[in-house]
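Hi R.,

As promised on Friday, here is the backbone we talked about, encoded as structure tokens. Could you run it through your design pipeline when you get a chance and send me back a sequence?
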């Protein structure tokens, strides 16, 4: 039933994850605007495949099998995903068994005359994380791209089990370093839901300040890097200077350039001094004043426009099917933003718009980023001007508590980020699961490269900027 509704477009898939004896599915119903979680016990170690009806679930099902040993019945793709055969045991979070050792990965076959393959990675020339890309091309034109990920799997869910909330929050903050504020906020909100605790109002506003500052820094970095991949270094240099300025402002406010370990369950660890907030506000005005110049140079440079317009087009249908969030979805006409559609404090008290484009190409993804920077800078000013009085944190229960579960969906710079946590009676983590936006964006990168030349892959790839570590966990 759930698979059929997802396939028909009635629900958007938020997450699909496992435990040793059950699987959980979370979805968003656009009609009612509500999100929900369904649980299916799996006493026989099997469950009906959602992926056979709804392809976005396939990699999630393969991961459930790798980690817990639960098999998706009638799945059209039963290949391993995160497990490369180098772990000491199979199914490390379920009923473990000895590892079978490394085995060749069966890439999908491609047939046709005069086709050749170009393997790229997992080790790359730049200082980036590992991932393998297998191109099949006819001349320079890509006819298939298949990814192989999982190289930076760290066993995050296993590491979180049994940890107290302080240590668990520190681990959550390090899942994907460029998204530390969003991950920390999602984990904190999920824990507070599990404990039935409401963080102070000031904490909500400061969390939003962190996440919006993080969004600006990452979008500026991406805008410059995409242009640099089109050999337009001027934009890269200019955006890098602005990104450095906002990272320094974050350090001045929160004592860390990435604002690591500042958002914690119960509230915030640090309240920025007034002078630091004033400088961040002034910087937001400075960057806002720079945006028209950035946009003018970008839109009037013919060599740059030639590379980005019409390149790597993602259709609206695919963006909707995969419930792709963030820049990727909004550049292809899918209007979804967790700050609006599943609003959480303080966004209902703030004014902002969500930019959308229909073209779905690299140009649209750059344009959306520029306009999101503009909106986030305005949000930063609204937050600083409207910070409420009161404490920034609330003590959490120290005695034995009733076990509880909580979920949260937070809008990070890549899109909506899902967190689920179950706490035991000691308020320690019994189980925890995160779903990065990249889970639903990596497969779409394979789709948009089709029909483009290999030389345009760096542009497509950087315009997506999916997370390896956030995906591999």
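Update: got your reply. Pasting your designed sequence below so it's all in one thread:
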């Amino acid at each position: 039933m759930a698979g059929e509704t997802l396939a028909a477009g009635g629900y958007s898939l938020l997450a699909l994850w496992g435990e040793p004896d059950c699987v959980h599915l979370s979805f968003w119903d656009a009609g009612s605007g509500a999100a929900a979680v369904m649980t299916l016990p799996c006493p026989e170690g099997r469950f009906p495949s959602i992926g056979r009806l709804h392809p976005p679930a396939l990699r999630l099902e393969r991961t459930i099998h790798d980690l817990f040993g639960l098999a998706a019945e009638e799945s059209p793709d039963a290949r391993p995903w995160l497990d490369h055969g180098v772990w000491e045991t199979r199914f490390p979070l379920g009923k473990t068994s000895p590892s079978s050792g490394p085995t060749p990965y069966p890439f999908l076959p491609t047939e046709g005359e005069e086709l050749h393959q170009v393997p790229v990675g997992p080790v790359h020339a730049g200082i980036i994380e590992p991932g393998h890309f297998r191109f099949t091309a006819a001349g320079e034109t890509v006819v298939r791209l298949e990814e192989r990920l999982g190289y930076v799997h760290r066993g995050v869910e296993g590491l979180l089990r049994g940890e107290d909330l302080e240590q668990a929050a520190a681990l959550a903050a390090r899942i994907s370093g460029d998204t530390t504020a969003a991950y920390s906020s999602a984990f904190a909100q999920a824990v507070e839901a599990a404990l039935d605790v409401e963080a102070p109002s000031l904490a909500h506003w400061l969390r939003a300040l962190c996440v919006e500052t993080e969004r600006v820094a990452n979008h500026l970095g991406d805008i410059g890097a995409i242009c640099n991949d089109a050999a337009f270094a001027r934009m890269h240099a200019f955006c890098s200077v602005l990104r450095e300025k906002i990272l320094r402002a974050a350090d001045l406010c929160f004592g860390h350039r990435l604002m690591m370990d500042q958002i914690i369950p119960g509230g915030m660890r640090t309240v920025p001094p007034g002078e630091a907030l004033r400088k961040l506000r002034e910087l937001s005005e400075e960057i806002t004043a720079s945006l028209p110049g950035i946009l003018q140079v970008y839109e009037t440079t013919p060599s740059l426009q030639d590379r980005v317009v019409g390149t790597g087009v993602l259709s609206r249908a695919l963006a909707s099917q995969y419930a792709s969030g963030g820049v990727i979805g909004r550049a292809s006409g899918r209007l979804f933003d967790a700050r609006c559609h599943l609003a959480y404090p303080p966004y209902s008290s703030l004014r902002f718009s969500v930019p959308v484009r229909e073209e779905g190409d690299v140009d649209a993804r750059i344009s959306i980023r520029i306009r999101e920077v503009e909106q986030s800078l305005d949000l930063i000013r609204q937050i600083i001007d409207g910070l409420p009085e009161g404490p920034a944190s609330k003590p959490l229960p120290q005695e034995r508590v009733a076990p509880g579960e909580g979920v949260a969906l937070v809008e990070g710079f890549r899109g909506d980020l899902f967190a689920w946590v179950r706490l035991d009676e000691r308020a320690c983590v019994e189980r925890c699961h995160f779903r990065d936006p990249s889970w639903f964006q990596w497969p779409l990168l394979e789709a948009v490269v089709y029909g483009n030349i290999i030389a345009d892959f760096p542009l497509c790839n950087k315009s997506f900027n999916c997370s390896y570590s956030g995906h591999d966990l």
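One thing I noticed while checking it: The mean pLDDT is 96.

Thanks again,
M.
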